[in-house]
Amino acid sequence: MAAKSKSNLASSVFWSLLTFACLALACYAALFVAPEEKTMGVIQRIFYFHVPSFWTAFLAIFTTTYGSVAYIATKKMKWDWIAVSAAELAAAFLTIGLVTGPIWAKPVWGVWWAWDARTTSTFVLWAMYVSYLLLRTLVDEPERRALLSAVVAIFSCIDVPLVYFSIWMYRTQHPQPVIGDGGYLDPRMGKVLLECWGALVALFLLLLRERYRLEKMRSEVDGLRMEVERRGL
Amino acid sequence: MSLARATGLILAKELRIELRSRALLSTTFVFVLLVLVLFSFTFDPTATEARRFGPGLLWLALLFAGSLMLQPTFVREQANDTLSALRMAPIEPFAVLLGKLAANAVYLFLVELILLPIFAGLYNLSILPVLGRLLLVMFLGTVGLATTGTVFSAVTAQARLRELLLPVLLLPILAPVLIGSSEATVGLFSDQPYLDTTWVVFLTAFDVVFLTAAWLFGEYLFEE
Amino acid sequence: MKNLHSVFAAFMAVWAVFFLYQVTVGWRVARLQDEIARLKDRLR
User: Which segments of chain A does DSSP mark as H helices, in order?
Assistant: First the structure.
């Protein structure tokens, strides 16, 4: 048992350091390798983490939905553990997106927030996954919690395209000064963008694994506690 | 027993319970009215502003009312433990869900029907020329609200803090309905009333998608 | 280079999330490991 936890710790440290290195490289690339953008200058470099954090959030949402469907199909708890871990990470990456956006917007366009299509949709998505996490804290029994959150996660995922379409359509009918990020992407910028996304995906996988382990241990503790009670110790 | 017949029986039971006391209908109606009145304090309801903001506020009030009144659907069953009886009945679980969903849609639609003339009066909008199309939009929006609301109330009935949790879960999911219904309604109240087919198709798609999802996954909510 | 502080703020936000999450999960894992050891002892 001691050997196993030691090797777990070792592998965990290894993956942490690897991810740390990826992130550090990505930061370096975003700050120094990528060419300077003409109109916005230095501030544009936030884009290299702002955009991929959304892509990673979608990856997390996909993982949650997959885990939820798998749980309903197989009733194996491990899928529920994957679903909740991914949902927390979806909320985390959406938060990064929602925080870096205003930091970018204020110096460039003078406003912290603009209710444009993308920001509004992201906010709604954020609300959906935060409410999923809230639901989980309000159901005590593990199997019931897994089932209820699975259904909610699936409904939330189905709603995502509907949210995006309706908000986009609304903005098309009520145009506002669009706070877009321009059309043309220099291929060097594209490369850095993908590198940063790679680092965030590595981060996502690392944190997913850690959070999954935490959930698995929680379940083990619950099992042991019940055993203790059963034996009346 | 066929799905249609089982659903019909559940629907009839729900309607009979409610019509006996009418408490849910009257309270929901007063709630929506209050919200509309309070909203009128936040802006000056001149003709153009009323037409721009009125429909959105009506739908917002309906969404709030819906997330409050949908709660009793399942909590009532829990209080009397009739849910176990329903579970043991020789009908498929989806019939229970569909019956309750239909009943909720009927209640909400009734509230809206009574509310429409009052709303039109308060905000100086003319509903008669567009009545048919308006009822279509209201129907589509209501079905969307009732579908997701009934499924989620089955979820929150099994959680703590359910009165607060239901709106928290439901309102983000219903954002598309709020947008679609409000926009379609605004179109109907504009100078040249028109029915925005994009939004009608969108609302229909929302309803179909979530009814299908309820059919696929709803029964798991009734498991022991 | 104007706005450099904003860029750093944004990058710090990403690091902060990473760091906080790692730390909290690691702390909870450590606590649970203790709990598991304790419970297993009781059962022996």
Answer: 2-28, 47-74, 77-109, 117-137, 142-173, 187-230
Residue among B152, B202, B217 minimizing CB distance to A72 = B217
Given a contact cutoff of 8 angstroms between Cβ atoms, the answer to whether B180 and B143 are in contact is no
pTM of the model: 0.89
Report how far residue B47's alpha carbon sits from residue B60's, in angstroms, rounded to the nearest whole number: 20
Contact call for A139 and B176, based on CB within 8 A: no
Range of the domain at A112: 44-178+190-215
ipTM: 0.90
Convert A10-43 to b/e letters by CB count within 10 Å (16 or more is b): eebeeebeebbebbeebbebbbeebeebeebbbb
Contact A162 B206 (CB under 8 A): yes
pLDDT at residue number A1: 46
Q: Going along chain B, which residue ranges are E strands? A: none
Would you say residue A197 lies in a domain?
Answer: yes
H/E segment holding residue B170: helix B162-173
pLDDT at A161: 93
Is residue A31's pLDDT more than 60?
Answer: yes
Q: Is B123 helix (H, G, I), strand (E, B) or coil?
A: coil
Do A and C make contact via 3 or more CB pairs under 8 A? The reply is yes
Q: Do chains B and C touch (3 or more CB pairs under 8 A)?
A: no
In terms of CA atoms, which chain A residue is nearest residue C1? A42
* Cβ atoms of residues B140 and B207 within 8 Å: yes
Using the predicted structure, report yes or no on whether residue B3 has a pLDDT greater than 50.
yes
A85, part of any domain: yes
Residue A172 maps to a domain: yes
Average pLDDT over residues A109-136: 88
Would you list the domain boundaries of chain B? 3-222
Chain B residues touching A169 at Cβ < 8 A: 179, 198-199, 202
Q: What pLDDT, in 10s, does the model give residues B100-153?
A: 999 999 989 988 998 888 888 888 888 888 888 999 999 999 999 999 999 999
In a domain, A222, yes or no: no
In chain A, the number of structural domains is 1
Note whether A91 and A129 are within 8 A (CB): yes
pLDDT tens track for B182-212: 999 988 888 888 888 899 999 999 999 999 9
Name residue A37's beta-bridge partners.
A41
Cβ-based contacts of C36 with chain A (< 8 Å)? 217, 220-221, 224
Q: Do A214 and C25 touch (CB under 8 A)?
A: yes
